[in-house]
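User: Predict the complex with zinc ion.
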Amino acid sequence: MRFKFTDFHVHTRGWSVDVAEDGPTFEDYIKAAEEHQINVCFLDHYELYYIENDKANPFYGGKIDDYLEEIDKFKETYDFILSGLEVEYYEDKEIQLLELMDDYRKEFDFIGGSIHEWIIGYPITTKEGLTSLLEKKPIKQIIDEYFKVSEKLINSNIFKNICHIDTIFRYINNNDLKPTDDCDVSDNRIINLGRLCIKNRIKIELNLSGLKFPINRTFPSLHVASQLKNEGGEFFVGSDSHSIEYFEKQIPEVKKAYNFLNTIKKNKLI
Ligand SMILES: [Zn+2]
Ligand SMILES: [Zn+2]
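Assistant: Here is the predicted structure with zinc ion placed in the model:
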């Protein structure tokens, strides 16, 4: 890699369905990354459920090989880009996910696991999805389920990297959809997820996407991240960009985040 720091998490037009039709292409990111001197890892959504069931999904019908080929071609010219995937975890698809990892672990530079929806059609990372889910279940149950599925994801050991471990709080927080008093939204709960990652030698993302929402913090927060780093956690930083404007705006923040993480050393006394 040519540059000192890497943004491990950007989404591209045509490969991630949540990127706008006039959103950024590989070339757009490459140009901006070169200009601002940062390595960039393409981490488009790979959601088995939709890949199997929705012909409109960009990865439907084995397109993963086209995706890889396209990025690998750019890699021949540019030494600051990485091929990656943000793979959705499904409790009932662990075997297929393990097969996917067996087939592609070596083909990609980086694969991260994440959770956006554990009930198909109700993503907690969109306001619409979360609002519909809240019509079916109390907020406490949704949060509890998120943490339970996240534990399963980590303990499955399918992934060596986990993205945005506490993204359930993207909309559920005191600045947005307020949790009820019976909800456990403590840092400790997130720290315990992080500790499971440390135990399983899984790298944790410091995801900057929360900075564009009312919660206005990283996932996990800098406080939680520093605690986990102190306990031996390993981190990678991702802007989770879906537009070139956001990507460019976040580059100094990504660099700052690495510098922050680098100031925290593992406490060897423990
Ligand atoms: Zn994500
Ligand atoms: Zn993402």
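Strands lie at 6-10, 39-46, 81-88, 110-114, 161-162, 203-207, 235-238.
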